Amino acid sequence: MPALSNPRYERFAQALFAGLTGKTRIKRAQSTAYLKAYPNCSSGNSAEACASRLLRNAKPILDRVRELQAEANARQRSKIDLSRERIGRDLDTASRMAAEQWHGQSVS
What we know:
Layout: H1 7-20, H2 29-37, H3 45-57, H4 59-103
């Protein structure tokens, strides 16, 4: 799914995603994201209510946030897989070295 056609919706979805994940995780992610997309809104309860209303009626925004989450998970999964391969190679190397020391010969 490409970026949302409404730039404010896209900005809201991006800010909501950023507020829900990673180092930028914050308590009031919805209202903070709403204020980034709609900076003229007053902060506090008004932003929270508007964000809630927007999320209730805008399925594309939720779909976009889910897509951003899926993309982030896919990137993390590939890093984890590479890490598993590296650990497997390291264990194999350590096993061969131990066998060589134990038997005094090279193991193929």
